[in-house]
Design a protein that fits this description.
two-stranded antiparallel sheet
Length: 448
């Protein structure tokens, strides 16, 4: 049975199949996975275009990092809060569909930008569009799958980061390799554009094709009607009571994201500048690492945490994420300083695997540690903190170290070592501090 709220706010009952059936839940997660994949293709394609964009726009690493991080992160985080609240009250599938359409158009607009500031504004638009996806998606998943499978389900959804990031690198590398023989490309109605601009058009517009599939999804029943979603005062009261749980969790995830986004943004340039690989080679090699090691980390972390949770470990998600950070810092300390490419890639794979446990466990923990009526809003708060710090600062901190601390583009490996290792250690400490508070919050919610 599902509830339908009409225009007057009355709740009607509809007869339908349970949205928690295994088949439908798999279909829903698949569609949301595709949406997240498209979002990360549009978000991460920039990391492979650093060198040609720096050349054509005549900009520094720091300016480039602002396009990769801050321009996107500011509006992604600011818009996430109101859109998260909206997802607690309105149609979540409608919010996601509108978001996909808008960010796809704005990604294509990056391909039409005439200068650095046009591109900066277009990247802001991509951030606005993508802000509506994850709060609504987390809430849909949490209301559509059994709680005992929640970590695994959100882990599968989170694989979109790695499918999107990996495909952006692999396909982008192939396109760049093909386009290297051209200085510019001439398109009908558009005229001459740089080859990197053509890449934005090629990855942006196809996302629009996904929009109709969102309307094949059901809007699952909430425990209460949308009009009864928690008020701002209720959310503030819950936050005050559980502030240590929320803050340690959110900031622990944020520092993990500093390491993750810093690496995603600058490992391609590191491999090009230090090890002499071409853009096409980097796209294939690093794309496969992101695709398989990143996705493998998310799925492995979710599976371990779910198993421990079934054994009665209430803090399983935070504990598994903490140990993953500690294990991941070991290869992170060594891969940027080795000269032989083979061990570099082996250690980079291990670093990517462990560093990404938190990407699935973080949002899954939010769904578990807050009331149903607040999931969208606390998911938005989580994304606000994680992306403002992780995405907003991760790429820029690496670039600032390269430009001003080490003073040479080829020293980007040392910048990666410094920023990512400190971030992972800090994340592990914050997650360790979260454990008793997280357990207490879960116990209180269970009693209620």
């Amino acid at each position: 049975m599902l509830e339908k709220v009409d225009a007057q706010g009355q709740v009607d009952t509809l007869s339908t199949t349970s949205t928690k059936s295994t088949g439908y839940a798999c279909y829903l997660i698949f569609i949301l996975l595709l949406a997240y994949t498209f979002s990360f293709i549009d978000r991460q394609i920039l990391s492979l275009l650093v060198e040609p964009m720096k050349r054509d726009l005549v900009i520094s690493d720091t300016q480039m990092s602002l396009l990769q991080g801050l321009s996107f992160a500011i509006f992604y985080t600011l818009m996430g809060l109101p859109l998260g609240r909206l997802s607690d009250r309105k149609s979540r599938r409608g919010i996601i569909a509108a978001s996909i359409f808008f960010w796809s158009i704005m990604t294509a607009a990056c391909g039409l930008a005439k200068n650095y500031w046009h591109l900066f504004v277009a990247r802001m638009g991509v951030g606005v569009g993508e802000a509506g996806l994850s709060p609504a998606a987390y809430s849909l998943i949490a209301d559509s799958v059994d709680k005992k499978h929640l970590s695994k389900a959100i882990g599968v959804y989170t694989m979109g980061i790695y499918l999107g990031g990996g495909l952006a690198l692999i396909v982008g590398g192939m396109v760049i390799q093909w386009a290297n023989s051209f200085t510019t490309i001439s398109l009908p109605f558009v005229g001459e554009i740089y080859t990197w601009q053509a890449v934005f058009l090629a990855v942006g517009l196809p996302g629009i094709l996904l929009v109709p599939f969102l309307f094949t999804l059901q809007e699952p029943r909430r425990n209460v009607s949308p009009q009864s979603a928690a008020s701002v005062s209720d959310v503030v009261a819950f936050f005050k009571t559980n502030r240590k749980t929320v803050l340690y969790h959110n900031f622990g995830a944020a520092f993990a994201s500093v390491a993750g986004y810093g690496a995603l943004a600058w490992v391609p340039s590191y491999l090009i500048r230090v090890h002499g690989l071409s853009s096409g080679e980097v796209g294939l090699i690093f794309g496969l690492i992101v695709l398989f090691a990143g996705a493998g980390g998310v799925l492995t972390g979710g599976a371990i945490a779910d198993k421990l949770y079934r054994q009665g470990k209430l803090d399983a998600k935070m504990r598994v994420a903490m140990w993953a950070m500690l294990l991941g810092v070991i290869p992170t300390l060594f891969y940027p300083i080795l000269s032989n490419l083979t061990p570099v890639l082996v250690l980079l794979t291990l670093s990517t695997f462990f560093a990404n446990f938190m990407m699935g466990l973080g949002p899954a923990a939010i769904q578990e540690a807050v009331p149903t009526t607040m999931r969208g809003q606390f998911s938005a708060l989580y994304l606000f903190v994680v992306n403002l710090i992780g995405l907003g600062l991760g790429p820029t901190l690496v670039a600032l170290c390269t430009d001003y601390l080490f003073g040479a583009p080829e020293q980007v490996g040392y910048s990666l070592l410094l920023v990512t290792s400190i971030a992972m250690i800090t994340s592990a400490i914050l997650l360790w501090r979260s454990l008793p508070h997280y357990r207490k919050t879960i116990e209180c919610l269970s009693e209620d």
